[in-house]
Automatic annotation (TrEMBL):
<dbReference type="GO" id="GO:0016740">
    <property type="term" value="F:transferase activity"/>
</dbReference>
<dbReference type="InterPro" id="IPR058268">
    <property type="entry name" value="DUF7962"/>
</dbReference>
<dbReference type="InterPro" id="IPR036249">
    <property type="entry name" value="Thioredoxin-like_sf"/>
</dbReference>
<dbReference type="InterPro" id="IPR036282">
    <property type="entry name" value="Glutathione-S-Trfase_C_sf"/>
</dbReference>
<keyword id="KW-0808">Transferase</keyword>
<feature type="domain" description="GST N-terminal">
    <location>
        <begin position="5"/>
        <end position="84"/>
    </location>
</feature>
<dbReference type="InterPro" id="IPR004045">
    <property type="entry name" value="Glutathione_S-Trfase_N"/>
</dbReference>
<protein>
    <submittedName>
        <fullName>Glutathione s-transferase</fullName>
    </submittedName>
</protein>
<dbReference type="Pfam" id="PF25907">
    <property type="entry name" value="DUF7962"/>
</dbReference>
<dbReference type="Pfam" id="PF13417">
    <property type="entry name" value="GST_N_3"/>
</dbReference>
Length: 337
């Protein structure tokens, strides 16, 4: 991977998932451009690339586009340059991965969503509930948020207890006891940073710097570290959808094509080969938005497919999705790449 490749982050500012990537880029001082998207569908800037995937963020490095923050951060870790943020040894890696699973696969974000105060401006728009229902896969209403709020707060109290009384219990300033924030802090902090910054999301009699002093101090330290990094390395350059499109489609690919793992059970079951037309989609949220393209490579960690941009019959981008949380199916047809 080349650190000189153009990097574009598609996101919107209050997406807690997008903050994970923006923080990583800031703390490592990796220059990038940002293409701000609407918080609800449609997103014409993404569709312009021939991508149906509806989740935010997406990140491009050259003409390769990466989906899902877990894969995005993994790819950014591979970039040369300033010191990486990932674990330095296997013990740290175990903690880092468990913190990732705790928040993303463990359902913490779902409870954060259910704790949102219903007087937020965005939550006054009926279109928001329709959009989020489409995203999650079942009806979302203001009444359902109010009804589920107490259960969500109870679950979040347990999560805050875990951070206060286990992860940070020995007085460490950072998740791995390091001298500054690392990837493990990003994996652990993002939903709590988001919630504590939303007035009215958490009842003050239960959640405050008094009841959870270590958690709130950690969030403040982390925010200062990110702000200081932006002052040192600079902020992202804002670009339009058209500028992002040109930057991506005029760039070389960031990665060489990988191989097809013949031992993969899905490869065998679906009869996948290089050039097979495949359909790929997330298996949890946003699952009704499916992408189709020509298979480039597939292994245990990621699947890569090539899709033509709508404006051209010859210009393509390569889209990378993680295997975890995504489905890959043979949609028929074989094309030589």
């Amino acid at each position: 991977m080349s650190s000189a490749a153009k990097i574009v982050l598609y996101h919107y500012s209050y997406s807690p998932y997008a903050r994970r990537v923006a923080w990583y880029l800031a703390l490592r001082g990796i220059p990038y451009s940002e293409c701000i998207q609407p918080p609800m569908m449609p997103r014409p800037d993404v569709a312009k690339l021939g991508i149906n995937y509806r989740r935010i963020p997406l990140l491009s490095i050259g003409r390769d586009v990466y989906l899902d923050t877990r894969l995005i951060i993994e790819k950014l870790e591979q970039l040369p340059g300033r010191p990486k943020l990932g674990a330095a040894n296997n013990n740290e890696r175990v903690t880092e991965r468990l913190l990732q699973a705790f928040n993303i696969d463990g359902g913490i974000f779902n409870y954060c969503f259910q704790a949102l105060p219903t007087d937020l401006p965005l939550l006054q728009d009926p279109a928001y509930y329709k959009d989020r229902g489409d995203y999650i896969g079942f009806d979302v209403t203001k009444e359902s948020l109010i009804r589920n709020r107490a259960d969500a707060i109870a679950e979040l109290r347990g999560a805050f207890d875990f951070l206060e009384k286990t992860l940070l219990a020995d007085g460490r300033e950072w998740a791995l006891g390091t001298d500054g924030p690392r990837l493990a802090d990003i994996e652990a902090i993002w939903p709590f940073h988001w919630l504590t910054g939303l007035p009215g999301a958490l009842p003050q009699e239960t959640f405050s710097p008094v009841t959870y002093p270590k958690v709130y101090s950690w969030v403040a330290r982390f925010q200062k570290a990110v702000s200081d990094a932006k002052k040192t390395y600079g902020r992202a350059k804002g670009i339009s959808g058209e500028e992002a499109f040109r930057a991506i489609t005029s760039s070389p690919y960031n990665e060489q094509p990988g191989a097809i793992d013949e031992s993969d059970p899905v490869v065998a079951a679906e009869g996948l080969k290089r050039g097979t037309q495949v359909t790929i989609w997330p298996s949890d949220t946003g699952s009704s938005y499916k992408d189709t393209g020509k298979l480039v490579s597939i292994n245990q960690t990621e699947v890569v497919f090539e899709t033509l941009v709508p404006e051209s019959r010859s210009t393509a981008v390569r889209v990378h999705a993680p295997r975890h949380g995504f489905r890959v199916r043979n949609s028929g047809g074989q094309t030589r790449l």
